[in-house]
Amino acid sequence: MREPGWGAMFQYREWLQTSPPLFLLLERGAIAIFGLSSSALRAVPLALAMAAAWAMWAASRRLLPWPVGLVASALLVTNPTLIEYSRTAKQYSGEVAASALLLWSAAALKERPARALWVAAIAPLLGYSSVFLLPGLALALLLCGHRRQAAGLTAVAGVELGALYWWFLRPNYSPELRAFWAADADGGWTPALALAAFMCIACAVTLCWRLRDEWFSWVCVLPCLLLALSATVGWYPANPRTRLFALPCFLLLLARSTSGHRLSACVRFSTDPYARGSLPKAACTIALALGALSLWRQVAEHRAAPQEDYAQAVSYLREHMAPADLLLVHAAAREGFLLYASIERWTPARVEYGATGWPCCARGHDARPGISSKDSVLRDLDAKIPPGFRGRIWLLYPTRPSHWSYAGLNEGDLWRNHVWDRGCPPGPYVALANLAISPMNCGR
Asked: How do 435-442 and 391-398 pair as beta strands?
């Protein structure tokens, strides 16, 4: 986002960049308006999450009794994964916003089919995962009698997705990226995910008997089925953040099934005033309980704590490093250090960056699992330290266990021990969130 030109932003020379173009442009605009800071970078994901909440509520109000829509919207807003990525400079809240906006446009499909075309043209620019919703939206247009719009949507989506693949996806793909997602520990099938897939399949079978009457349900169920199929065959990485886009679809599908149940209908249309008012009261109680529980978890479980505390690391180094000191930054910490050093407007006098143990996926560097070796690490480290160096060496490296298990070697400990063996004993060790700072004293 800080590159001088748009081309360098879309195809970053140091790293594979997988964020959609519209998300990058919005972030670039926020930096231009507010300056480079953590708050500016987080403003866009937060705004997109709020847009997703609004679109979810607007779609629910059109399709569901408002108490049921209130609970469905509350389940989306209080989802801990969505909350996490509404304050993280990543594109996943934008993917949820794209899905929710598509559902909102589909809710008014019969009255305003043109709105669905406009939203469908913008959504892939904001979230690549919206491609999972486009087949259901085209089918819904066809079932509602809008054959021309369905053909137009198919043609526009085909051309747009082809252009996105050629200009943005193809230059930012490598076999290492696929290997990284395949080795992701958060992915795979869980009992809850398998149950959700089973419910979607059951809904799809039921919808086959009522094809035309339940056109909106196809917009909700098809993305879930396509996601499950893609994850099963290894085409799409389905971990909690990458499948977050399907959550609005699943919640609306579940809410429509619930609101159509006979018991719910009895409560809504009962002539007893007490029974008729019980559903809104229960819905408000559930929504408030979900909000309170979500707020408690954010505070009690320290969910706002940084996963890698580069802000504190850069601040500490800036305060304690002398001009003659040498700073060695591990390759896995390079981008984080560069970003927060720019935010702090600090340029160390002597800094070297490691060239081993890369995470996925730096351009021109082999980052396959297990590729790191002890000899290559030590050779690279010795090349970074001048012969006969006297003074203090500062080591900055990650301590996340999942990264070292992926790389196949704990290079942080190896760095510290090797510099110690060179006659530079360590000073006070600073442990931060998944980061470590280790000063090594190489004589006066």
From this structure: antiparallel
